[in-house]
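Example record

One chain of 252 residues, shown exactly as stored in the release files.
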Amino acid sequence: MLSEEEKFRFDLQGYLVVRGVLSQSECAQLSQLADDVWPRQQTDGAFRRTASISRWGDEFLNLIDHPAVLPYLTELIGPRLRADHDYCIFMQPGAAGQNIHGGPMRYESDHWYHYHDGVMRNGLTVATWVLNDTAPGEGGFVCIPGSHKTNFIRSVPSAVLQQQHRPDYVIQPTLRAGDVLIFTEALIHGTAAWSGKQERRALLFKYSPPHSSWAKTPYNLADYPNASAQQQRLMAPASVENHARVTADGDT
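Predicted structure tokens for this chain:
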């Protein structure tokens, strides 16, 4: 459950960093398993991305309802949230970034943030698992804090969105291995070019309210024979009827 300060931070900024969810050894184990399942090829570029990392083994699947993170998601999305899709981004030193994008969309049903009477609710929301440190200025995740509530989304200059220029309202949070960065897709965000000494490794799990879906193809539960009952319910296709309530402690 979010503390009062965390509620303030998320409402103010549109993102929140949960520190030290994974240990250094757990991060190293996930990185090694990733190398085993998805080894780097000679033809690969400096920027790599692939989907369905939840199929890489139980260690990855169990991130989908990790007990230290799921309570945050249920409070930000609602108790009947669903897992929508997942993927990873690996960036070697010198890898180019991606344009800044997102923001509250007037006609987009999945990118939104609402507050009413002490309760926050979000559309598509991301839990990014950080497997190595990101020092100031090294790149990776960047965002415009507070932009999830902006009324002037079209006023952001194209040079800023294309990362040709970074004004002071675009920030890069400092992250450490084991942190989990949670943000709403209503936040204007992107990926800056990577200049760290080691490969940047981030695992992204995205969640939606029960009635909406961003992924074109839902999870196929036949691909997850070891999934728990709760994981199966989270990965069910978009439908209010398919998703039981998830309580703050992760029970259903």
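Notes: The chain has a mean pLDDT of 94.
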